[in-house]
Design goal:
Helices cover 35% and strands 15% of the residues. Helix 6 links the parallel strand 6 and strand 7. The protein is an alpha+beta fold. The protein has a domain of 164 residues: Peptide Methionine Sulfoxide Reductase, Chain A, CATH 3.30.1060.10. The strands form two sheets. It has a six-stranded mixed beta sheet with strand order 7-6-1-3-2-8, with helices on one face. A two-stranded antiparallel ribbon has the order 4-5.
């Protein structure tokens, strides 16, 4: 039964709004789980820089981007690919699971307003389940793995310490499988993947898998929730 639901959800993602009928006929409902995990005991030192970049992977990038676009202090959140080479940073290729890429989001934030540690706390609390290996929800494959791509040695230190902290505390009741992958480049995804949650709020995949994540952000982290998302395409010139 679980495999059947996963296939239906994956089909809905590919079919878009047409998939809503498939799910409705199947009577599929899936609640997104979330929890407030403890903040990291170690965080980056407060700095004066106006921006910093984090690259995170936690399943389909539509939901990851959508959540961070609603986080106060985030300047931009761009869907893309990390872990592989530039010539395979293409949705069709990445979907075949052999490129080494993970669907990722590049989060640019103001460290004077929100810390890297807080970004990671949100990532582990409402973005995804870090105990699922090479899958999230209905999506399976290494392109949906839980991974952190540090952009500095300090980020790597904080991320590693945080995973160890959560693991020792048995926060999730199962081993954390999140990988820390160093020296990986980020490549933006195709335009049609950007701002997908905001532009397609009635897509069945978004309704079932991703809108609950935004709702959980608002419920669990009200101090950093922003109602109006910071969008990618709004800043791009029209063709």
């Amino acid at each position: 039964m679980i495999q059947t639901l996963q296939r239906l959800m994956h089909a809905a993602r590919r079919l878009g709004c047409a998939g809503l009928l498939v799910l409705a006929l199947a009577g599929v409902t899936m609640a997104e789980e979330a929890r407030v995990v403890p903040p990291p005991a170690q965080d980056e030192a407060a700095g004066t820089s106006a921006s910093e970049t984090a690259i995170l992977a936690g399943g389909c990038f539509w939901g990851v981007q959508g959540v961070f676009q609603h986080v106060d202090g985030v300047l931009s959140a761009v869907s893309g690919y990390a872990g592989g080479s530039k010539d395979t940073a293409d949705y069709a290729k990445v979907s075949n699971s052999w490129t080494g890429h993970a669907e990722s989001v590049q989060v640019t934030f103001d460290p004077r307003k929100i810390s890297y540690g807080r970004i990671l706390q949100i990532y582990f609390s409402v973005i995804h389940d870090p105990t699922e290996l090479n899958r999230q929800g209905p999506d399976e494959g290494p392109q949906y793995r839980s991974a952190i791509f540090p952009t500095s040695a300090e980020q790597a230190r904080v991320a590693l310490a945080y995973i160890e902290q959560l693991g020792k505390a048995k926060t999730f009741g199962a081993p954390i499988v999140t990988t820390i992958e160093l020296n990986r480049s980020f490549f933006p995804a195709e335009d049609y993947h950007q701002d997908y949650l905001t532009r397609n709020p009635m897509n069945p995949y978004i309704v079932i898998n991703d809108l609950p994540k935004v709702a959980n952000l608002k419920r669990l982290f009200p101090a950093v929730y922003r109602a109006d998302p910071v969008l990618v395409m709004a800043s791009k010139p029209a063709n």
